Amino acid sequence: MLFGKKPGYDPDYDLKIDDALARNDYPGDKLDAARAAAHTSLCAQMCTAEVWDKYKDVVSSGPAKWTLARAINTGVMYPDSFVGCHAGDKESYDDFADFFHPVIEDYHSGFSMKEGSDLQGTPSERIDPARITVDLSTSAEDKIVSTRIRLARNLSMFPLNPGGSRESREEVAALMAQVYARIPKTSDLAGELFLHTTMSEEKRQSLIDDHFLFRGKDRMQAASGYHEHWPHGRGVYLNDAQTFINWVNEGDHLRIISMQKGGDVKAVFARLSAGAKLIEEQVRDITGQDDVFMMHDKFGAVTCCPSNIGTGMRGSVHILVPKLIKAIGFDQIDKLCRERNCQARGSTGEHSEVIDRIDVSNWRRIGLPEYELVEDMISCANFLAAEEDRLV
């Protein structure tokens, strides 16, 4: 046994295809039931019988040779999923355009795949901290407990992980090991890569206790193919200060994370920017390929799940607003955040209990540069801090 991996089929990690989809048959009864439910996934809404008939025998032109059956497996297996579909390669998004494009436009309200984004500058320029023009108020900074900003990125020389293999995941991890080995020991990004297959049980428990380790065992992710060949090719890179973390092959090839205590948002974003640029430069140097991160000419960064495409960025702060929580409640706070292009989550993350603080993050993911989404989050934190200060 290796970190819970048992011989034979393991439902926590291994891919199981819906019986109808395995036969390449339309799972109409399950999708009809999902559409009739109070909570309807985007997969069920957009995969009509007409869309299925159009694409049921189509194979993506990318390296994954993806199919619509594979794309919708999560939504069919688990109708309570919100999105319920995944891409196996960059080409899937356009090869199954009549399915994926409506999903994108529905999730990213206001964005049009016909028009696309009109972003100026390179991906590196769009995460330039010098472009942030909104400052955090003194009141907001005093109330912020911690700041965390992450980017989802995929490397253009590999298929997306749902359409990948054990070998492709291990090649991603091996490439990133070369990148991390090149980080100067004097850099504040310097640290160590811990692979799931080789880390000690003591280190594994330490990373779990510190909330740095991803562990799989998500039923919806398993149905997408995220967890296939677990734990091979998975790892966590952690800098010495524990402020720069990379998840390797958790779902997307990379989750690049910058975090620290307090409210110095610009410092956190600057570290994220420096880390992403370093990775891009070193991968380009090692592979000789100019296009390092997988990008789409309409929406930007390509990710496995349509919910993260565009920037793949989520910037968040935990902010103390106990009086505001007591006065108007979490739902009203979330409404105010949504009006400011942000969202509120519970005191310890999504679906968690609300105590004295909330997690505030950018809601928009697409059509705007990353630095503007950080500005959304700063402006919303400033507003909430001012509302808290008004209460006696």
- In the predicted model, the low-confidence regions spanning at least 5 consecutive residues are 1-7
Output the strand order for the largest sheet.
2-3-4-5-1-8-10-9
CATH fold annotation of the largest domain: Creatine Kinase, Chain A, domain 2
Count of helical regions: 16
Q: So what's the overall shape?
A: globular
CATH architecture of the largest domain: 2-Layer Sandwich
Q: What average pLDDT do the residues reach?
A: 92
Report on the biggest sheet. Answer: 8 strands, antiparallel
Q: Can you tell me the CATH superfamily of the largest domain?
A: Glutamine synthetase/guanido kinase, catalytic domain
Q: What's the helix-strand series?
A: HHHHHHHHHHEHEHHEEEHEEEHEEH
How many strand units? 10
Radius of gyration: 21 Å
CATH class of the largest domain: Alpha Beta
Fraction of residues in helices? 25-40%
How would you sum up this structure in a few lines?
With 392 residues, the chain is α+β, with helices and mostly antiparallel strands. The chain is built from 16 helices and ten strands. The protein has helices at 19-22, 28-36, 42-46, 49-55, 68-71, 73-77, 92-95, 97-107, 123-126, 138-143, 166-181, 201-209, 219-224, 265-287, 322-338, 370-390; strands spanning 144-153, 191-195, 235-239, 244-248, 254-261, 295-296, 300-301, 313-320, 342-345, 357-362.
